[in-house]
Description:
A: alpha+beta; TATA-Binding Protein; 6-stranded antiparallel sheet; 22 strands; elongated; disordered N terminus; disordered C terminus; B: mainly alpha; globular; binds protoporphyrin IX containing FE; transmembrane (chain A); ResB-like_domain (chain A); transmembrane helix (chain A); membrane (chain A); Cyt_c_bgen_Ccs1/CcsB/ResB (chain A)
Amino acid sequence: MSETTTDRAEEQDLGAAGSQLSTAPTEELSSVPALGFVGWVRWFWRQLTSMRVALLLLLLLALGAIPGSLIPQTGSDETKVADFRERHEVLAPVYDKLGLFHVYSSVWFSAVYILLFVSLIGCIVPRTWQFVGQLRGRPPGAPKRLTRLPAHTTWRTEAEPEQVREAALALLKKNRFRAHIAGDAVAAEKGYLREVGNLVFHIALIVMLVAFAWGQLFKMEGNKLIVEGGGFANTLVQYDDFKSGTLFSTDDLTPFSFDLKDFKGTYEPSGPNKGTPRTYQASLTYAEGAYGKEKSTVVKVNEPLEIGSSKVYLTAHGYAPVITVRDGKGKVVFSDAVPLLPLDSNVTSSGVIKVLDGYRNAKGVGEQLAFQAAFLPTFEAGNEVSSAFPALLNPVLNLEAYHGDLGVDSGIPQSVYQLDKKHMKGFKDAKGKQLRQNLRPGQTMKLPGGAGSVTYEGTKEWANFQITEQPASGWALTGALAAIFGLAASLFIQRRRVWVRAVKGADGVTVVEMAGLGRSESAKVPEELGDLAGTLYEQAPGAPDPDEPAVDAPDDTEQTTATDSAVPAEGAEK
Amino acid sequence: MTLAAATNENLANLSNTLIYSAMAVYTLAFFAYITEWLFGSRSKVGRTAAALTASAKTSAAPAVTVKKGGGTAVLERPKVVVRATGNTRDVPDGPGAHGGDEQGDLYGRIAVSLTVLAFLIAAGGVLTRALSVQRAPWGNMYEFNITFSTVAVGVFLTLLALKKNVRWLGLFLTTTVLLDLGLAVTVLYTESDQLVPALHSYWLYIHVSTAILCGAVFYVGAVATLLYLFRDSYENKLAGGGTPGRFASSFLDRLPAAASLDKFSYRVNAAVFPLWTFTIIAGAIWAGDAWGRYWGWDPKETWSFITWVAYACYLHARATAGWKGRKAAYLALAAFGCWLFNYYGVNIFVSGKHSYADVGLGALHSVGF
Ligand code: HEM
């Protein structure tokens, strides 16, 4: 009976020595409380801030992120979502209910990460206090039997116990341990930075989340296509499309304007990589504020122009043939550069030229005109349908002419790049076929029956600019960097304790015992202990062996059970 | 064709030849590893069983003798006694693939030498490929694959050079490297090609090179984790008094102890986790420069995030009672699965900014990352 009690006492003793080597919440499988409302709240809170639930929530976060990568998302590609809806009439409404078209802003996904972050805060705050307490206190005193610890060593020496302890204290302090003498032993601890790192990492996660959320709420993103010579002023009406976070107000748009002077693309001229883009650059003049001074700059693909909190990115380019349309009387009814959409990497392009008003046909009746355009910047004989090179080497513009009613007033929005032929009739050539002609710069296509003409004057380039504001990205970056450093400290630094006991044995010779304990088994702890012991041994050299074998040899029976408690959660061996 | 283009083509051809040669040498290494395992099975070791039964029977024997400097004036270090603690069984590591057999050991050494040779040739192949396109060799899946397998072998050889007990990894590694290269030269082969301007950013180099390194290290960790699971079942069976099959006893007995494998895979995974975190952040910075937003839940970004959370789960699990050991190992494997899917799955099945070849400036010609 008495054996068991000493065993238990020893266990507790060792437990205390190993306690607080980390501030991780203790694992308790708390049973359901019977304490009324407050009890329930407390129970719930404790569950939420336990490692087990944090783990579960992390798993849910990972699983929850998956559908968003497989199902089209409104946030990144609206047209794909529309496409999906058309093809899956049964599934789409279900997906809609579950928010699967916008997973990352859906209720359930938000619930998971909000719970996770509440859990995180509920975890960090007490851990920080506990850690501050540990820093204020001192490393716990030596357990009764150091030989039970995972790494230990002992020797006999002629030196006095006090001398040994003083030497050990000095040695440990020199090695940047926090050390003090407690009773007959020196207690020391090192590696607090591990805990700091862990806390910094978890706090940085919160900083990142808040910065990200802030950025989402106050962000804006818009696109503007500009033909060489054209310009843009940063107001809502000038955008081709515009998206913004819920809390963004258009009054917040940074006032600035810019003009596209020139766009230049260069391409690999020959060899196996012929046609691969080398550089894209747009020369701009811009002005900050409403009446700012004009400055020149060059925007490249990975090098946006930054004005205040806005960034101007170059995101696409293409060609815009300059077209002049005349009516039967030779009056110019349309003259403009018309941007066409690129279709492949050699910038084969297509689009529509629409003459909405001002045109009267041969009979003098008001009508609308449209030309379906296909454009090859480099035309090569034998290949009539696609361009052979992305640069303007031998441009050819193919036009198909139509007349009638474009239906733009029907209220249904129309893409400027598409032609609705419902109320349009094709002009016919002499053979009665659809009128179609290849034009080189300067050439004109006559419309039959004195209906007028269309001239391809030359080619300009256009560039698409994306203008964005994403506030708090500096905070996100700061959080991210702090997270990396915190993580590295947390994972690479081992927190460990060392004790040195020196007492007079029965025969008057001092017995030195040293032991080390890390958060878990690690090769580094015994190594370090060996180094320390080696140095201390020089100051307290060995005395002759007594006759009987070592006093402290433990017996294996108790070994496993007793040491269990001395070694806290594994998981951070270094 | 210009002279420069011709040299580039020659370099590209040289690169292809080197990759094929490396595959041939890896195949030789593969057979040498097999031979090592075969010779190893001649010696009946059964250490694990012995250790497990011994510790059950002779519990009273003193496990530890205290060593001292001795009575003389010789200054010697006191010896540190280390004891197994916690729940880990005190099982010794297996002797390795050769099972203590001398001839097996010889073949093992030959295998490692061949691996070094193949690695050098493959590295030459990657280098000439890079020179032929005058950029980093990871513009498409082919280049990514050859770089990845070379780095994975590099990680293995580095561990060997650091005198870590990892030779048992050799067979698994050469097997997968051969698969990886085979896939690269057959399915994924792409003529050397230039990158589009969106890929011209030093963040890309940082981002992709660390991604490859992380993948290689995660891969080593995953192999160790998988073997841990087998070895752990084997030890459990023995400890429970069962008799594992002949193959298991011969094969698994030669691996390191379950506890060692577990620790090894943890260290490997934990060591690269901060680098993986950095990889994602570097990618976000690059995306911020190239696409105007640092995070947009693009499939590739999403799967990097999922992989990251999965590894975070694994690290958490190791610190959570009831989740250590096998459950944590399953999480680690799932996390590596996410990494793999991020590379192959997302490139092949899911389209996003990272993979589509449109004609805007954001085109990223089927690039790995
Ligand atoms: C936002 C989600 C979270 C992520 C991504 C995350 C990630 C991590 C990672 C990667 C580690 C490993 C670093 C190390 O071992 O020192 C870690 C450790 C830790 N985490 Fe979290 N964590 C999250 C939330 C939480 C929450 C909610 C809690 C509180 C219940 C928590 C408590 C801890 C503790 C106590 C450790 C240290 C374990 C140890 O001492 O070994 N974490 N976390």
